[in-house]
Design a protein that fits this description.
alpha/beta; Rossmann fold; three-stranded antiparallel sheet; globular; six-stranded parallel sheet
Length: 235
């Protein structure tokens, strides 16, 4: 990958995961000269996750590409209004508009029965262990899927009812990498959200965990976003 343009990249993971799944993307981008930071969001509330992302953005030394996977898409939609963010990359991610909740994005689209969430009495959810691989990481090896399953981070399910107050994609260029075998979100839902946001869409044959299973493809889109956003900011 050619690194001409914006150097800084911040990666935001989604629900049921942590930042370690970005290692392949991190390795590919740093090898091409990007400066990559990974936000470890706590998944305890929408406000907490946005605040954790903003702390990482505050540490950047210039224009930055902000990337979010899955629930991380909602987080970057809000956090992306930060003045250091030059572009947004959504990786099989939620892309709500201002005033919308993440849960509202599912309305009118097909259910995803293989993506099974077990919710505890405290309101935090884990992905069902038996359904984890087919629902989240079908194209991972059995060993890798087992590690992701056993390392998953529970999410406060209330986050999906929190409304976004501002949508960064309305003012900043956006890109979307969509997994064509995503079983967490209906394909039509992913395409609709990305198209509404005016994102440049790249389709990748992969599971919902494409950030982990297809890191080179994801990194290529991020690198392209860094080049193209640099041109738009200098214009």
């Amino acid at each position: 990958m050619d690194n001409a343009g914006i150097t800084n990249v911040v990666l935001v993971h989604g629900a049921f995961a942590d930042g370690s799944g970005w290692r392949g993307v991190y390795d590919a981008l740093t090898a091409s000269g990007h400066r990559v930071s990974i936000a470890q969001i706590p998944l305890t509330s929408f406000e907490d996750d946005v605040a954790a992302t903003r702390r990482v953005l505050d540490r950047q030394d210039g224009p930055t590409i902000l990337v979010g996977h899955s629930w991380g898409g909602t987080v970057i939609t809000e956090a992306g209004v930060h003045d250091k963010v030059a572009g947004l990359v959504y990786v099989s991610a939620l892309i709500p508009d201002a005033g919308q909740t993440s849960g509202e994005q599912y309305e009118g689209f097909a259910p995803t029965p293989e993506f099974v969430i077990d919710v505890g009495d405290d309101g935090f959810g884990f992905l069902n262990p038996d359904a984890f691989k087919p629902g989240f990481a079908a194209d991972a090896s059995d060993a890798d899927a087992a590690f992701l399953r056993d390392a998953q981070v529970p999410v406060n399910m209330a986050v999906f009812g929190a409304a976004v107050t501002q949508a960064a994609w309305r003012d900043k260029p956006s890109w979307a990498v969509i997994a064509t075998d995503d079983r967490a979100f209906d394909q039509a839902m992913l395409q609709h959200m990305a198209t509404r946001a005016g994102a440049a869409i790249t389709n990748v044959p992969a599971s919902h965990a494409l950030y982990f299973t297809q890191p080179e493809a994801v990194a290529e889109v991020i690198a392209a976003a860094a080049r193209e956003a640099a041109l738009s900011t200098s214009a």
